[in-house]
Amino acid sequence: MEPEVEIIRAQLFALQDEAYRTFHSALMPTVPPETVIGVRVPALRRLAKQLAGTAQAEVFLQALPHGYYEENNLHAFLIELIRDYDRALAETEAFLPYINNWATCDCFCPKVFAKHKKELLVPIRRWLDSGDAYTVRYGMEMLMRYYLDDAFRPEYLEWVADVHSTEYYINMMRAWYFATALAKQPDAALPCDMPFLLAGGPIQFNMLVCHWASLGYLTIFCGKNARVALRRRVDMGNERRPAEVKLFQMLFSQGDVCEGASLLYKRTAEKADEVLRRYWTKRLYQKNSGNPLIMRALGVLAGALAAAEAASPLFPAGFVRWLLLVVIFVLGGVLFGVVQYAPSAYYQGKRPVVALAAVCALALLMLAQLGEGLLAVLLVVACEVLIGVLTLHGGKRTAFGDEIVAQALGYRKFLRRVTQSQLLSRLAQDSQYFYRILPYAEAIGLGAGLARTLGNTELEQCDWYQEQQPLPRTAAGFYSHLQEALALLELSIRK
């Protein structure tokens, strides 16, 4: 061991706190307790400042691997103080393979990295692909630290999502990253995605258009003769995910105005459903998670057979009997399909569909009672509900899928429970807040409830939706007008 290193080790032992050593060792199961000296972090940072730039520090930085936990942390803090980007990066990359615990990994970040975010993305990609647990974790930490505010890009979420590992400390950092990302970047999941994320429902392009409008990219105008037009305000750049940019460019490929009733709007909506559904399916589900459609189809078939079997004793023998059984078979399949769809409808906020499913189940049970097949049909009804729950999210999700669905569920819970006082508090900070969250609420069937929550509170005029006549100033009044425009846009998609 070099004399300079021995002197630094002696300095560390002079700062030893036995009680802290015992406490801190218990927090790091991957670090042998005998390699922990017991030096508090503030004392380590003060020592690093004293040594920074000295010949002694230079020798210490080359003395890898270190024998003690605190030596590793001191090494990290010395790197943190390097002001030259290339040198800081080189020392960081030399040190990363020797990190053996989460505390050392998370404790340092060279300040100079903040001034070189663009260049830092290259080594971050390399760290994420390294396969080394703490190098991967460090890459995620840098993305969390520097790229969740102004430098955020949606594809960075994908970088983290694409890391597949069973390593506990990688997965813990991934969860931490997504928790922070979801707090700082709430529109990482778009409102049009919400029905699909929650229940495998359709991509709602109209809600994506409203979201783009709330972000300032376009204006929705409803004019005479129920004519809805979209007017581009600014071009969309790489601040949005590539799929969004392509769809936006397609929408305005014929100029700065797109008519809601045009074939272009319809084709863009169809393309959005295809692109976004493929985007999420690839990232939400594991490749071998199975096909939920097969389970659903078999469930409906079993239900149809159960309905026919239960109704069979009610019909007379002969041709009419078989004809009626075919009718009951088809009708039973439809009714059981509605029962199976009920869990998805519930998560999408479609309460009428849930009520219809309950009526269908009751009708089937009454039919079974008359035909003396109650137990069988009751069992099938229960199975249909179970299938609906099991296939709700399409299959076994990835870690990223779990995180993004958790975000959607959390947002849904917030929108269902938000109070008037909470909304008023947020409106005091952001006068357009109601209009900003409305696309999310409407996508999952909570738009009307959100408007009712605000009651007769007067709002500022919406800055992205316009009509020839002044719009109502209340949330409920605005919502009813917007609903009419959205109904016209939906008609354009479905015609």
Structural class: mainly alpha
- Termini separation comes to 80 Å
Biggest sheet, spatial arrangement of strands? 3-2-1-4
If you average the pLDDT, what whole number results?
86
Q: Any idea of the CATH class of the largest domain? A: Mainly Alpha
> Could you give a short account of the major beta sheet?
4 strands, mixed
Keywords:
single chain, 495 residues, mainly alpha, Leucine-rich Repeat Variant, 3 domains, four-stranded mixed β-sheet, 65% helix, 3% strand, globular
Question: Can you walk through the features of this model?
Answer:
This protein has three domains: 3-187, Leucine-rich Repeat Variant, CATH 1.25.10.90; 292-390; 409-494, no CATH class. Helix content is 65%, strand content 3%. The chain has helices at residues 3-14, 18-25, 41-51, 55-62, 69-80, 85-95, 102-107, 117-128, 133-146, 154-161, 168-184, 194-199, 205-214, 242-251, 263-284, 292-311, 319-347, 351-370, 374-390, 399-417, 420-429, 433-443, 447-454, 475-494, and strands at 218-222, 228-232, 257-259, 465-467. A four-stranded mixed β-sheet has the order 3-2-1-4, with helices on one face. The chain starts with a helix and ends with a helix.
